[in-house]
Amino acid sequence: MEELVNITDITKIISPLSPEIAGSLTNLIFILKTVGIIAIIFFIIQIINVTLNIIRGRKINDILTKVNEIQEKLGIDPDRLTKNKK
Q1: How far is CA 1 from the centre of its chain?
Q2: What average pLDDT does range 55-80 have in this prediction?
Q3: Who has greater pLDDT, 13 or 67?
Q4: What pLDDT does residue 82 have?
Q5: Number of other CB atoms surrounding residue 25 within 10 Å
Q6: 3-class DSSP assignment, residue 5
Q7: pTM as predicted
Q8: Cβ atoms of 14 and 22 closer than 8 Å
Q9: How far is CA 56 from the centre of its chain?
């Protein structure tokens, strides 16, 4: 089984290469790290967004249930309020 290369050991791999290739590899590694961090932050924000949407949806359903109960008590036809008057 191959051993995984640690990021701190990457300098040992890059040092025998020519300076141009080593510089481009260093830049590439930096860009990949940055993209990875941005992706992690994006997924965390999306998880928070989904959680808030679920909570918001539950609150809307609770309000809708209460509105329907009030309409039943007042004897109002629920369809009458939602139909378009054309």
Answers
A1: 34
A2: 87
A3: 67
A4: 63
A5: 14
A6: coil
A7: 0.57
A8: yes
A9: 17
Q: What is the residue type of 25?
A: L
CA distance 62 to 70: 12
Return d(Cα 18, Cα 14) in angstroms, integer: 8
Token couple for 40: 């992690």
Which amino acid is residue 52, in one-letter code? L
Per-residue pLDDT averaged across 5-27, rounded?
66
Contact 26, 33 (CB under 8 A): no
Please report, as a single letter, which amino acid is at residue 72: E
Determine contact, residues 78/71, Cβ cutoff 8 Å: yes
Torsion of CA 70, 74, 75, 81, to 10 degrees: -60
DSSP count for the chain of H helices, then E strands = 3, 0
**Neighbouring C-beta atoms of residue 67, cutoff 10 Å:** 13
Per-residue pLDDT for 38 more than 70?
Answer: yes
